[in-house]
Records
---
Amino acid sequence: MQEYTGFNGEALELIRDTNIPEAKSMLDRVLILTNAHTNEVSKRTLGAMVQPQIDKTRFALRHIFGILCNADMQPEAKVDELHLNKLRTNYTKIRSSFDAFFPKVFLERDNPAMAAWVSNNLSDPTVNFTKLYFDLSEMDQAVTLIHERAHTILRIPGHPGTGDSPVCIVPNQGKKLGFDVASRNAYCYEWLATSLHPNYDPTPYEDACKMPTH
Ligand SMILES: [Zn+2]
């Protein structure tokens, strides 16, 4: 099967030259910022200036994946260490999957409900795209790829704990599902990657969830 099917040149180039490199860079960032040893070294050499980033990272880890880390990014308990190691292994697998071949198919649909999806047959690595994908911001396009690859590579079908279309989620606040559920939900992998992006701002997500006042 060819790598890209059904895309026009512009769409193909957007995915290949912008979205995939951004997805890789977001995954690399997650792996660096969740590395306790790297954080310890930066804290020792750079001092207090690294603390806000550590605090952002541990806030997101706690709320999205239920992993507790102290102010030095050390896991609080043995169970947190096990979960953090498992999470980092999973992110490493997703990151590697962007260096492997996977087919990408564009499908015309009159009324697409999803921007992208993979088959429930997880041995099929094809990522299918609809025109909705191209309405997303570039950051959302990149995390959508992370989400779809997480399904396939981690073999995690469905979305336990959130359903297929979670609404009113502020990414760094997650959905407080606890590690066992969150680590099987592809949305949680995209939320952490979004939360740790330097341009991440929770405000638009918070505003979108506020009830209109009259
Ligand atoms: Zn999904």
Note: Helices lie at 9-33, 36-46, 51-65, 78-97, 138-154, 179-182, 186-195, 203-209.
---
Amino acid sequence: MKEELLKKYENIMQTKDICVGDGWVPLVEQALRLAEDYTSRGNIIRFLQVKEKFAALCIHISGKFTENEVASKFYKEMGEIYIAASKTCEKCGSTENVKIDDSAYWVKTLCPSCTENRKQERKTRQNVLP
Ligand SMILES: [Zn+2]
């Protein structure tokens, strides 16, 4: 899925990696479709980095727009995708009771079931001898 996106949107993606969980990949695709739509109307948009940072979807963008209003509209629509990510489990894509799991030092946006799995995985790791 990530490989396909990198290939399909190679004109926009200036990075070789999409560093987010599978649950957010559809939102990254939505962002790429949006960028492609604006690009087809004379704007130049490049994604320099796509990652998760402090439990949030983070896309570093370089953009040159035909007009300031066009830029404002684009970034507003991107904002809606970021907000959607904050309500979507990064691991499985569920939107049910999604919260920021801050039980480990690395915070993540997860649904209750993925939060539980993450806790179990941590426990298992702690039981393994070094
Ligand atoms: Zn989940």
Note: The CA atoms of residues 7 and 50 lie 15 Å apart.
